[in-house]
Protein: Permease of the drug/metabolite transporter (DMT) superfamily
Amino acid sequence: MTRYRSLGLFLVLAAIWGSAFMAIKAGLAFFPPVLFAALRYDIAGVVMLAYALYVTDVPLPRDRAEWTEVAIGAVLLIAAYHALLFVGELDPRVTSAAAAVVVSLSPVLTTGFARVLLPSERLTAVGIVGMVLALVGVAVLSELDPSNLLAGGTIPKLLILGAAAAFALGSVLTRRVGSDLPIATMEAWSMIGGAAIMHAVSLALGESLGSVVLNRESIAALAYLSLAASAVGFLIYFELLDRLGPVEINLVSYVAPVFAALAGWALLDEVPTAPTGVGFLLIFLGFLLLKRHAIRAEVAGLVERDAPTTD
Structure:
């Protein structure tokens, strides 16, 4: 029963995070991009802080290491990731599915950064092949043309690649700091800090609340991203991370593009292109090569748990 519950939560999380790309695309018709991202985390940060106050005895960072972890989360996991993602999705040539596929490179990049920044990690020859294969997938998806880098939405997709890289680097750096701050507290203060950074960037870019259009569609997009994708999504993520471990939960990144494509097609009339599918396949193959040992161990563990016992 627990396994079916975990599978159900996994699919719900993939659906929520996948359809979030569609919600971003829809909301960008009514909000300036960086301000939109900032408003999302104004709301999500307050909700997550309330949750942290409820479930932990440590609602506030206590020492330098914990504040460092929050700062990394605010700058890289929240501000850089979402500002670049929202600006990238502003381009009409970037579909919800394409954005989700580029972001699915994040687990691959996380492995690469870990090999560089964590002394115990090393990248083997097969791992290097996996990294290269995944990057080729992004090049295919971006329809990279060296003679005309502005064609085919290449620059917006590279911005989204930058978002995935920021998230991956932030994940590795927070692991390297390794403080004892509860995850819920770290996420709450990272969201609040990241929102503040994005508000500053938004002002520097000349964005203003006066350009926001409030209607049923814009409010629905903001509410979905703030409450469903951020608050509920992260709560499910935390539970599944504890149950499944980092390898299986990483696979959410590879199921989410399916839901992104379906949501974009159903609500925004987006049609995924062939390069999107090919790029996704290459990125996923790269992930399998990089994580082959962890995946093999995970499969062996599942087989062992399923094996019948004898008296």
